[in-house]
Amino acid sequence: MTTPTGPPGGSWAGWRDGGGARADVGADLAGPAPPLLEVHDVSVRFGGVQALNRASLTVLPGRITGVIGPNGSGKSTLFNAITGVTRADSGSIVFGGTDITRLGPHRINQLGVGRTFQLTRLFGQMTAFENLVVVGRGDSVDVRRRAEELLEIVSLRHVRDEYAANLSYGQQKLVEFVRLMMTDPALVMLDEPFAGVNPVMERRLLEQMDGWLREGRTIVLTDHEMKIMMEICEEIFVLDHGEVIASGTPAQVRNDPRVMEAYFGR
Amino acid sequence: MSAGRDTVDPGGVVETPRPADRDDAPAEHDPGMPGARAGRGGRPALPWERRLPAIYVVVLVVSVVGLFLYPRTASAYNVTLALTVLLTVTLATSWNIISGFTGYTSFGHAGFFGIGAYVGALLLFYDRMHWLPAVIVAGLATAAVALAIGYPTLRLRGPYFAIAMLGLSELARIVVTAWESLTRGGLGVFLPILRDPTPNYHAMLALTVVAVVVSYAVGTSTFGLRLLAIRDDEVAAEAMGIDTTRHKLAAFALSSFFPGAAGAIYARHTGFVEPAAVFAVIWSIRAIATTMVGGQGTVLGPIIGAVLLTLVSEEVWARDPNLYQVVFGGIIVLVVVLMPGGLIGLGRRWGWLPRSRRL
Amino acid sequence: MAAESTPDGGPPILRVREIDAAYGKVQILRGVSIEVRPGEIVSIIGPNGAGKSTVLKAVMGFLTPSRGEILFDEEPIGGVRTDLVVRRGIGYVPQGRIVFKDMSVAENLEMGAYTIADKGRVRRRMDEMFALFPRLAERRKQAAGTMSGGEQQMLAMGRALMGEPRLVLMDEPSLGLAPMFVDLVFAKIQELRAGGMTLLLVEQNAVRSLSVSDRGYVLELGRNRFAGSGAALLADERVRRLYLGG
């Protein structure tokens, strides 16, 4: 695992304009890379509501993909379906060539899909360090070393033995981020990572995400803060009433009349 | 409204510009987060904490030796009392493994106790084997039953699981009562009355030591940490790759071995088993109450609680049997309302005890 | 907001002044201010996560603002228990058409009149509701859970009105409804205003909402962003761009 060197240029926008060390995956290769995640015609219905209606999307490896949509559009359900928390009624979800549609959440995580939740879900009765160790796999000495490393990277060594419930909100978010890394996911799914977060913490979270992309991981995220989503995502899928109504680059999506209609109204 | 910074344009729309930097709302303690109450406080490492394992070994050896020799100087009544204390420690410690750590409050300990008592008693009654292996067989049989019923029941959420186990416990009693050809039903099983309680007492001591050691191993291991994760937030634990079903089943089977084996020893000790006695709900309640008083999810909690409550209740019961129930009930209510973390939790909250998992 | 001439010259019936509100540790509202004058329809719109629903919840007493105050008829109601807020004269139609599924339409309406002791008055009020919502009259004995979304929304509105409120708060009334019912809901909203009711709406569908509103507030990330008349906001390019990260 290479240690991220921090965002180049000191500003996120600068990095996005291609000044960084990250190669544009697929651009120089012969042909596009195969998708890392394929969601195909997935439908989910509960409580009499069609939460997802034949939703399809593809995520290419090494990219940062966004999912946006108004309230009730099905973003959370989509995340839950992919990570196995909710069962898809129909359709298929394929991750790295493996059909994960019917697998349980722990199995899906073991295959390489990690996620965070909207409000931080740390194990409150354990220390920050224990939160990391408990999800680690493999040799316990290695696990503990990794946990210490990760805490060091986010400068949270000093709260190592603090109960997670006692940490500040921003600290909890960071711990949740690195806890995710303990499971070494190839695909990182972030559910509203910037909710209730101040700009300083925002920068720290973005630094982490930057590091992950350099390590070759893939990121899918959803958030209400449109500005940031448009700035950092390379591709965006727009959901409305459980369906994917548009997809493309941020610029394309922003100018799509259907998207404006979904958000602003008819 | 901040009238100074707003701009009004000819169209009649007032704009409030975005602030340059947003406030950082100070993080307040969120009472909603799991563990917020029980997890508060506790000093980080104290100097003597690192020596805890060594201290434990010494204390364990000393107390085992002392307890082993106890019958030589004590009356039969006191030996029985000591056996009861050890029995309660075993029940509490083992209950803690499934319920204290995992958070699945089980009312099934009475059922396991009864099954173990009957398996042990019947093996002896029909003269199948020597009593020591019979105790072990009883424990294993009970664990097997637990594995079988755990698979469906551990899927249920908290209160439903509790009620399901209560129901299954009763079901076991009814089955045993009805299966007269095997169990002699309501008549009960009579075993030879023994003059000397010492061998049974020693067996119970051995079982208790094993239970305590296993509890320590679970409490200080990653396995135990994962059980705590399941208690805190099972969905998050699953999402982080923890196979919660397998963990719960393992804890359930492990925890049920002990009431089973203890039931067999108890059967031999009292010389008579009948369904109403060995399947009585009080066995579950004793395990639950003592563990809660001492501190769920800790290693020492069940031990402290069991010793304390058993001795206290014996004293109170000796003075006034009626008062005994009031005091017992009162203590349980007090603990649930005021100190959900039990005595260990209280000690941690007041800063006397460290947060170490070894406690 | 600078004092403008009000439709009927009265003081604001509701004043939300610089409130901060949070769910646990997550700060939702920061210094939000809203004013509603008698007889108006005011809309609160804004992108997701703006905290629009939270404003209504703060008024209704579901959560207590950590700063600022809420005044109903110049009486402070911030942090007051919800049932007392209702008794003072504010009706609430929650998001998602929460109706008592196993109860009939009539029973649901009765529940709305919980605060009225006089049975005669309750019956008269129910008749008024059936006059206002003929569809409900046809289905008075029908179990609420078997009705369509639009009909349930009517029922939720009727139930809120049973308590004879002077101000009605509606949280996303058109969410998830078929276009026909969206039209119906907004028609009813206008009918209510014509009858003298004051309404504060939170809406996803900014266009529909602003087109029936006298005034509107646009919130972004828990703060006031724009304010103005319904028509002015509707026409404003900056408001549109706000929705997609401009």
In short:
The complex is a heterotrimer of chains A (266), B (359) and C (246). With 359 residues, chain B is mostly helical. Chain B has helices spanning 52-69, 76-102, 109-125, 131-153, 158-178, 180-183, 198-220, 222-232, 234-239, 244-270, 275-278, 282-294, 300-319, 321-338, 342-349, and strands at 7-8, 14-15, 189-190, 272-273.
Please provide a written account of the structure:
The complex is a heterotrimer of chains A (266), B (359) and C (246). Chain A is of the alpha/beta class and 266 residues long. Chain A contains 10 helices and 10 strands. Chain A is globular, with a radius of gyration of 18 Å. Chain B has 359 residues and is mainly alpha-helical. Chain B has a two-stranded antiparallel ribbon with strand order 1-2. In chain B, helix 3 (109-125) crosses helix 10 and helix 7 (198-220) crosses helix 8. In chain C, the strands form 2 sheets. Chain C has a 6-stranded mixed β-sheet, sandwiched between helices. A 4-stranded antiparallel β-sheet of chain C has the order 2-1-4-5, covered by helices on one side. The A-B interface holds A 83, 85, 104-107, 109-110, 114-115, 117, 121-127, 130, 133-137, 140, 143, 161, 163-171, 179-180, 182-183, 196, 198-201 and B 21-27, 29-30, 33-36, 38-40, 42, 44-45, 222, 225-226, 228-229, 231-233, 235-244, 297, 355. Strand 2 of chain B pairs antiparallel with strand 10 of chain C, so a sheet runs across the interface.
- The total of beta strands of chain C comes to 10
What is the arithmetic mean of pLDDT of chain B? 86
Q: For the largest sheet of chain C, list the strands in their spatial order.
A: 6-7-8-3-9-10
Q: Can you tell me the residue ranges of chain C where pLDDT is under 50 for at least 5 consecutive residues?
A: 1-6
Strand element count of chain B: 4
Class by helix and strand content of chain C?
A: alpha/beta
- Element order of chain B: H for helix, E for strand: EEHHHHHHEHHHHEHHHHH
CA(first)-CA(last) distance of chain B: 55 Å
**Spans of chain B of 5+ residues with little confidence (pLDDT < 50)?**
22-40
Helix content of chain C: 25-40%
Number of helices of chain C: 10
Number of helices of chain B: 15
- H/E order of the elements of chain C? EEEHEEHEHHHHEHEHEEHH
Radius of gyration of chain B: 25 Å
Structural class of chain B: mainly alpha
Q: Name the beta content range of chain C.
A: 15-25%
Largest sheet of chain C: 6 strands, mixed
Largest interface, counted by CB within 8 Å of the partner chain's CB:
A-B, 45 and 39 residues
